[in-house]
Design brief:
This protein is mostly helical. The protein is built from 9 helices and no strands. This is DUF3597 domain-containing protein.
Length: 134
């Protein structure tokens, strides 16, 4: 999922896993003859919850335009510094499985797309309030 992965990346999804890797490498480099490194590596990494609203509010506060990211996919993409053109949104809609009957109407596609992006963010560990999922 190319465009959606860009959205995840802009919001910091996966950062906790990346940040966890360097300390593990540093532990392996340090001599520790009495403790094996295997238990630390075997511990499962829980899916970290990303506070999407807080991140987006922070971005919105420092953005030059007043963007309504809570209802507009165009504004959400702009806020994240992504291409919000019709072609890009149409590609994202296809990537996320937008029904064909909505793809022909840009307004319906945009509404579906915003809800679907919020839903997918929640499925990937994002803390999304219920009012943004309805």
């Amino acid at each position: 999922m190319g465009i959606f992965n860009n959205i995840l990346g802009k919001l910091g999804f996966g950062k906790k896993e990346e940040e966890a890797t360097p300390p593990a490498t540093a532990e392996k480099a340090a001599p520790a003859p009495t403790e094996p490194a295997a238990p630390a590596a075997a511990a499962p990494t829980p899916i970290s919850e990303v506070d999407v609203v807080a991140k987006l509010e922070e971005l919105a506060a420092s953005h030059s335009e007043k963007l309504n990211w809570k209802t507009s996919i165009v504004d959400l993409m702009k806020l994240l510094g992504l291409d919000s053109s019709y072609a890009e949104r149409k590609e994202l809609a296809a990537e996320l499985g937008c029904p064909a009957n909505k793809m022909g109407d840009s307004a319906q596609m945009n509404m579906w797309l915003h809800k679907e992006v919020m839903k997918k963010l929640a499925e990937n560990g994002g803390n999304i309030p219920a009012e943004l999922l309805d």
